[in-house]
């Protein structure tokens, strides 16, 4: 699902001055030594937050807008420096979520998801189907073999699914699965 960002607020000169007042531009900060750190409130993952008109805004998004004159709109604002509180516009770039993840993997901050070896024919349930618990051997079974056979026999005689679900104390979908052999296939 795509991330939804609010449109950046209209900032007056006074708001812009207040924003930059909380940014420490002294050298030697962050991993590159050239980062400008946000000195006020931060989110749990370290990203700065600027409160304007009673709403919280990510500081790196505002810094990108102020530094480049571009509204990031629905795209991410990413850090070249990988330092979440950094507000140096030269360290920020706009990119999609895909670009952000690729950048993260390329820098070694995240490993790509492993390719599962437990798929298809090599999955344990296919290799050893005799180990799977089926029917009344399954711990969540509400029916047993005799009841399943009785459900199918009564259905052949014309009993309705709602009537069978009431009689056997299970959901009508369970009755349907038994009749259509989606479940209890082994009987």
Question: What's the structural blueprint in terms of helices and strands?
Answer:
Blueprint: H1 13-21, E1 23-24, E2 37-38, E3 49-52, E4 55-58, H2 59-68, E5 76-79, E6 92-95, H3 97-106, H4 124-127, H5 145-156, H6 161-168, H7 172-179
Antiparallel strand pairs: 1-2, 3-4, 5-6
Helix pairs in contact: 6-7
Compact overview of the structure:
By secondary structure, the protein is α+β, with helices and mostly antiparallel strands. It is 33% helix and 11% strand.
Task: Summarize this structure as a short list of keywords or feature phrases.
Homing Intron 3 (I-Ppo) Encoded Endonuclease, Chain A; 6 strands; 2 domains; single chain; elongated; two-stranded antiparallel ribbon; two-stranded antiparallel sheet; 7 helices; alpha+beta; 187 residues
What does this structure look like?
This protein is α+β, with helices and mostly antiparallel strands. The chain folds into 2 domains: 13-106, Homing Intron 3 (I-Ppo) Encoded Endonuclease, Chain A, CATH 3.90.75; 135-187. It has 7 helices and 6 strands, in the order αββββαββααααα. It has a two-stranded antiparallel sheet. Helix 6 crosses helix 7.
Number of helices: 7
Largest sheet: 2 strands, antiparallel
| Radius of gyration, in angstroms, nearest whole number | 30 Å
Report strand %. 5-15%
The 3D shape can be described as: elongated
**SSE series:** HEEEEHEEHHHHH
CATH C-level category of the largest domain: Alpha Beta
Structural class: alpha+beta
CATH overall fold name of the largest domain: Homing Intron 3 (I-Ppo) Encoded Endonuclease, Chain A
CATH architecture of the largest domain: Alpha-Beta Complex
Report helical residue fraction. 25-40%
Tally of domains: 2
Could you tell me the mean pLDDT?
87
Outline the low-pLDDT stretches.
Answer: none
Total strand segments:
6
Reading side by side through the largest sheet, how are the strands ordered? 1-2
N- to C-terminal distance = 42 Å
